[in-house]
Every structure is written in structure tokens, then in C-alpha cells.
Amino acid sequence: MSGITILCYHKVGPIAEEGRFLNVEPSTLRQHVRFISRRNRIICAKELAHNWTDSAVCFTFDDAYESTMENAPRIFEEFQQRATFFPVAGLVGTSSVWDAEKARPLADWKVVLEAHKRGHEIGNHTTNHPHLNSISKEEQLHEVSSAHQTLVGQGLVPVTICYPYGGYNEDTLSVVQANGYAVGLSLRKGVASERDDRLALPRIAVGYSDSVPMLFYKMVMRPRLRKLGL
Ligand SMILES: [Zn+2]
């Protein structure tokens, strides 16, 4: 496997509570972590700021849902691994209002900071979860820098940022750079390579029905088929 595979998850909870929308069962995540930790080095997103090992997998979790923070950190810890979580700084402890009628609870600061204390990475996911590429540069600056200040105020030192809905433009890149961010995650599909802009790295979205064979297909086979134009 060449390049860095950055996986994108959202909720991690039982189907009875979280449904299928943006969710994987805790047992599914455990199978993913077991499978990948036996074959690949697992890294946090911040490690991409300085080192590029060209063969590693990074698990990222957008929004820091309550279900995610309850289940994911301990699953990684079972395998002596760590993951990267992106809470929405202005909505921590409330609910994912941007999911409309599918809104679910977001973990509070106590839970987020506990995960950090146990070695997981906490990054910036803006203050209000806007589509950054549809607001002005000044509004983008406010979203990124106010979230940064909130995280710093909680004793965190964020160096990675994850763009809500994966949306970004040229203004976003200059805003995040000005705020000192070294790694930015989009939702452009694919495996990240050293040639990619470190502030706009691609990810692979993982869904409810992604069994281990499907994950393997998405991580290894599909990128190869794409390269061949198939
Ligand atoms: Zn999000």
C-alpha cells in the first residue's frame, strides 16, 4: 500500500440509537481497527505535519458525536492505537443541528478533553460547521480563528483542521495557513500522497455497510482501479 489512507467516520453507535445515517456499529469499527492495526501503522492526523512515511492509516472522526466519543476512543485503546476527533467548537455539548431532523447529541468538553488526555488528537472543525466555500474570506477567518481560540482556551494545541462537508477554496487555504495549521482534511476521494497539498488532503468515507472486505476494497483496490482508469 503506498500513500496515507485517511479514513473519515462520523457516528459510532448501535443502529437502534443512531440508525445507518453517517454511522458504523462499534463492533464494525473494532473489526476495522483490528484488521488495519495488524497490517499498517496507525497515525494521528497531526503526524502528517512533519513526517510522511508513505504507508500508514489515519482514522478521523468528524463532529465528535456523543456516541463516537463514548465508543471509539476505547476501541482504539484496546489495540494500543489512537485516533483524531474533530468537535465543532461552538456546538460542543449540544446537538448536530446541521443534520436537521437527524440531529444527534454531541459530546461535551469533559468527554472531549478526557479523550485528549488519553492520547487522542483533537482538531479544529470550525465554530458553527458552515460550508466554508460558500462564505466570505472574513467569515471563514472568523470560523477558523474563533474555533482555534476556543480549543486553545480548553488547553488544546490544534494543528489539524477538517473542513465541514469537505468544502474549501483558495481563501480557506490562506486562512488556515495564517492560523498556523499544517494539515487540512477535505472529502476529496482517494489516498493521500506526498504530492498532495498538505492543507487539502483527500479522505475515504466509511459507511454503515462497510465490512472489512469492503474497507479493503475502498482502501486498496479502488484507488488502483482508478489509476488504471477503470
Ligand atoms: Zn462535520
Task: Draw up the topology in text.
Layout: E1 3-9, E2 11-12, H1 15-18, E3 23-24, H2 26-39, E4 41-43, E5 55-63, H3 66-78, E6 84-87, H4 109-117, E7 121-122, H5 137-153, E8 160-162, H6 170-178, E9 183-189, E10 201-205, H7 212-227
Helix pairs in contact: 2-3, 5-6
The structure holds zinc ion.
The site of zinc ion has 5 residues, from β5.
Structure description:
- This protein is an alpha/beta fold and 230 residues long.
- The chain has one domain: TIM Barrel.
- The strands form two sheets. Strands 1, 4, 5, 6, 7, 8, 9 and 10 form an eight-stranded parallel beta sheet that branches.
- Strand 5, helix 3 and strand 6 form a beta-alpha-beta unit.
- Helix 2 packs parallel to helix 3.
- The longest helix is centred in the middle third of the chain and has 17 residues.
- The model has no long low-confidence stretch (mean pLDDT 96).
- Bound molecules: zinc ion (ZN).
- The site of zinc ion (ZN) has 5 residues, from strand 5.
- Zinc ion binds next to strand 5.
Give a brief rundown of this model:
By secondary structure, this protein is an alpha/beta fold. The chain contains seven helices and ten strands. The protein has a single domain (about 5-225), classed as TIM Barrel (Alpha-Beta Barrel), CATH 3.20.20.370.
CATH superfamily descriptor: Glycoside hydrolase/deacetylase
Number of strands: 10
Shape: globular
Number of helices: 7
**Small molecules (ligands, ions, cofactors) in the structure:** zinc ion
Distance between the termini: 19 Å
CATH class: Alpha Beta
- Main sheet summary: 8 strands, parallel
What letter string, H or E per element, gives the SSE order?
EEHEHEEHEHEHEHEEH
Would you tell me the structural class of the helices and strands?
A: alpha/beta
Mean pLDDT: 96
Strand content: 15-25%
Roughly how much helix do the residues carry, as a percent range? 25-40%
